[in-house]
Each structure stands twice: as C-alpha cells, then as structure tokens.
UniProtKB/TrEMBL annotation:
Taxonomic source organism: Oppiella nova
Ranges annotated as biased composition (Low complexity): 249-258
Protein name per its UniProtKB record: Ig-like domain-containing protein
UniProt membrane topology term: Single-pass type I membrane protein
Transmembrane in keyword set: yes
CC per GO annotation: cell-cell junction; plasma membrane
Record InterPro entries: Cell_adhesion_signaling (IPR051275), Ig-like_dom (IPR007110), Ig-like_dom_sf (IPR036179), Ig-like_fold (IPR013783), Ig_sub (IPR003599), Ig_sub2 (IPR003598)
C-alpha cells in the first residue's frame, strides 16, 4: 500500500480590484516631479491606463505615473483605469496639488435649536495636510469635553483635497450660540475664519413672536382709534363755538341797524325843519327887499347877494343867487 500525492493548480480568473490607497492627494512644489500610484490586482493582470480628467490622451500604462515639472497646468485630478477582459472596468481618482498655505472656504452661518445637537463645520483646503486645526468660542479654545457634550471631528472628503472639521455640541445651551473661530496651519502658513452659530426659530419661538407681533398691532389700532375720536371731538367742539359766535354777531348787527335807522329818521326830521325855516327866511328877506324897492329911489349900483344851504340827500350846497338893483 502506498501513498500518492498530487498537486493541482487552479487558475481562477477575476476582475480588477483596487487596493486601498494610503494617499489620494499628492502635494508637490512648483516645477518639481511627483509619482502617483494605482495598485490593482486581477487575473489575468489588469491593463492600466492613466488619463487626466477632461482629456482623452493616455499618459501612462504602468501602476505608477510620473508627472514631471508640475505647474498650474498639470495640477488637478488624474484617473487610473483598470480592466480585465471579460470583467467590468474600474477606475480610481487621485489628485495632484501644489503645496501652499491652507485656505478656508467662505464662512457661513449654521443654525441650531436649544436643547438639540448642533454642528459647526469648517471646510479646509490644505496641501500638505494641516498640522493643526484649532477652534475658539468667546476667545476660549474649544476642546473635546464629554462632560459638556462637546466633540470635534476632522475628516477628509473622499476624492477631494478638502478637510471638514466639525464641532459637535450635544444638548446645546443658549451660551453655545454665537461666533466661532476656525484656525488651520500647515508648514506653508495658516488661515482663519469666523463662523456663526445662530439659533433657529422653532415652533415655540415662532408662536411667541407671532403673539408679540399681534399684541403690538392691537395696541397700534387702539391708539389710532383714540386719536381719531379725539380729533373728531375737537372738530365738533370748534364747530359749536363758531356757530355760537355767528349767532351773537347776527343779533348785534340787527340791533345796530335798528339804532341807525332811528337816528337817521330823527336827523331827517331835524333837517327838514331847518330847511323850512331857511326857506321862510329867504322869502321874508325877498319880500322886505321888494317893499324897499318900491319906496326908495333906484340906486346907481347893484348888490349881489346869495344864501346857501346843504341838502341832506345829496350832501351838496344849494346856492340861491339873486341881484338887487
């Protein structure tokens, strides 16, 4: 009885598999070279092709791509495509960036509710990686504190050179709202921004605000009504006073008119008597003169005499002119 051993090799085909990348963002100084890697497994050996995003020309076919003399034109996203005949094609994306100081995206406002979990995020573009990210609130450094329910999470956004640093506050209090300062550093420099955490208007706050606004509107309406009534009362009071004054003036005018009429009648009577007396005197004088003319001789000179009296109606003098011979 013997023992037989046999070895059989199985050739199993499988599609391309990408190994986890330790680095997806490569930083390089201006006019320097950089090597980017794409590690792929497959059976049979996958075919690899390197392309730059937005272009169609193949830059390389190996597991590594050498990018020479890097400038602004050569930075961006590079695509590694791996394929095995009979299996779907896969791809991986790597980023080439120029080294420089970090940059924080434009700040914005975050909203949260008291008593709930709130988050304040700071988006950072930094190549190389930041050496330090520090948060401040009310000029105090924000640290991870499990007793207060404060945590800080830093994570890179997949496929990007952006790092998101987030302050998480559980069971937020009113004192947790306000301005936060995010400061980031790397070996090329630093950047900082102010990010605001504002209180979101909840249902309770909205109801309170609506009630306050309604109360203000009611007060305004009441004040308006009171002012209108006061003005109307003042106007009516003034109208009554003017009416009373008009009645007094009418009575006074009638009294003055009656008095003037009586005085005018008396004046007419007096004037008429005076006129009659004057006319009588004229007649007497004329008669006397006529008698004298009859008894006396005719003189050699003549004498002109006149008398006048004022007419009451016309206000002019009536002159009686006669000549004595």
């Amino acid at each position: 009885v013997g023992t037989n051993k046999a070895t059989h090799t199985l050739n199993v085909s499988f599609g391309p598999i990408l190994k986890p990348h330790n680095e997806t963002v490569y930083g390089v100084d201006v006019n320097r070279d950089v090597r980017i890697k794409c590690e792929v497994e497959g059976n049979p050996k996958p075919d690899i092709a390197w392309l730059m995003l937005g272009q169609t020309n193949v830059l390389g076919t190996d597991g590594e791509l050498l990018v020479k003399d890097v400038t602004e034109k050569k930075i961006g996203k590079y695509i590694c495509r791996a394929s095995v005949k009979g299996f779907p094609e896969i791809s991986s994306q790597l980023i080439v960036r120029l080294n420089g100081p970090p940059q924080i995206e434009d700040p914005y406002i975050h909203y949260g509710l008291i008593g709930e979990t709130v988050r304040i995020g700071c988006y950072i573009n930094s190549v190389p990686k930041p050496s330090q990210i520090v948060w401040h609130h009310n000029r105090q450094i924000v640290n991870i504190d499990s007793n207060r329910g404060v945590n800080i999470i830093d994570e890179r956004i997949p496929g990007e050179s952006t790092i998101l640093s987030t302050v998480v506050i559980y069971n937020a209090k009113l004192s947790d709202f306000g301005e936060y300062n995010c400061t980031v550093r790397n070996r090329f420099g630093f950047d900082n921004r102010v990010i605001i955490l504002a209180e979101k208007i909840g249902f309770t706050t909205l109801v309170t605000f609506a009630s306050l606004l309604l109360s203000i509107l009611v007060v305004i309406v009441l004040i308006t009504i009171v002012v209108i009534l006061c003005l109307r009362h003042r106007h009516m009071k003034k109208a009554v006073k003017l009416k009373k004054k008009g009645s007094l003036y009418s009575s006074s005018d009638r009294t003055s008119s009656d008095t003037s009429d009586e005085t005018l009648v008396e004046s007419d009577v007096s004037t008429a008597g005076t006129t009659d007396d004057t006319d009588a005197g004229i007649h007497v004088e004329m008669q006397s003169i006529t008698s004298s003319e009859m008894s006396a001789p005719a003189p050699h000179h003549s004498r002109r005499s006149h008398r006048s009296h004022r007419s009451r109606n016309t206000g002019t003098d009536i002159v009686l002119d006669y000549e004595l011979e």
